[in-house]
Amino acid sequence: MQIVSAYVYGGRLLSVDEIKGNWLTHINYAFAVIRDGEIVHLFNQENLNVLKKVKRLYPHIKLIISVGGWGADGFSDAAFTESGRMKFAKTVAHFIKENDFDGVDLDWEYPSSDMAGIKARKEDKENFTLILREIRKALKELELEKQRPLLLTIAAGAEPWYLDGVDLKDIEPILDYMNLMTYDFYNGWSKKTGHHTNLFTPAHRPEDNSIDKAVKLFTDQGFPKHKLAIGAGFYGRGLRSVKATGNDILYADGSENFDVGYSTLVKDYIHKNGFKRYWDDSAKAPYLYDGDVFITYDDEESIFLKGQYVAKEQLGG
């Protein structure tokens, strides 16, 4: 079975009706955080009850608690000592048991790196492996009690620098699968237009990243394809004050970044208010432009092609 997973953000009160469980195999509930070395859920507690109801409606779904996210601190400290790793793993297992989840996803952005403004140490590389081992140990003990397997996954950066901060060969046997963050290739602070979640590297920009390039990066290092799940962006990355024409829209200069959710894209941007949809066939990626504002995003066509790619390459999802 291939993974069809969705990150469900808990920053507002969720409802059962909005979660299309028949379309999914896994739900990553995002995000819990780390406080004093323990996993903590800071959102509305009712969301946990909503997810339990979703699980009853769709018993095939695996509920996974995602810990961390961009700018979420606490990982380096929790992983730094043996006692800290044991403490954290124990609280992860407790959360899974108390809330009837099926696993945990560590979204440490990123081991050995302070680019997100979090604490980082050179020891993170080794300690990341050690804390994953401790979590796996705690999950195995809980599996005996619950009589069912529990999942341990991570979200991983899709660029070569990510591999400098982790021991990929050491962590691979510990993980059930890895969520490759194959989005934000052109991120929220770039002052040039470009694709943020393109399937292939653009023919005219061979130095650019892509999903295909990221998959090859990890598989060339020995990571098995069936344990890789690629990502799609249900949001767009925008840039204002872009002055370009014809084939020069991509990689043109702009001055103000913004994000926009897909529902808003459909409502206000795609084929609306002067925006024209363009298609980069080499990258298999759409973009919008109205003469001033540029938006890179995923739509039905690009996501369909990603699904075909997953099947063809026999990826995890």
TrEMBL record:
InterPro entries (alphabetical): Chitinase_II/V-like_cat (IPR011583), Chitinase_insertion_sf (IPR029070), GH (IPR017853), Glyco_hydro18_cat (IPR001223), Glyco_hydro_18_chit_AS (IPR001579), Glycosyl_Hydrlase_18 (IPR050314)
Q: Which PROSITE patterns does the UniProt record give? A: GH18_1 (PS01095), GH18_2 (PS51910)
Catalytically driven reaction(s)? Random endo-hydrolysis of N-acetyl-beta-D-glucosaminide (1->4)-beta-linkages in chitin and chitodextrins
Q: What keyword terms does UniProt attach to this protein?
A: Carbohydrate metabolism, Chitin degradation, Glycosidase, Hydrolase, Polysaccharide degradation
Q: Which Pfam families match?
A: Glyco_hydro_18
Q: What's the EC number here?
A: 3.2.1.14
Record's Gene3D superfamilies?
Answer: 3.10.50.10, Glycosidases
Any GO BP: chitin catabolic process
Can you give the residue ranges of the GH18 domain? 2-317
Q: Which PANTHER family match?
A: CHITINASE (PTHR11177), CHITINASE 12-RELATED (PTHR11177:SF317)
Please identify the protein, giving its name as recorded. Answer: chitinase
What is this organism's lineage? Bacteria, Bacillati, Bacillota, Bacilli, Bacillales
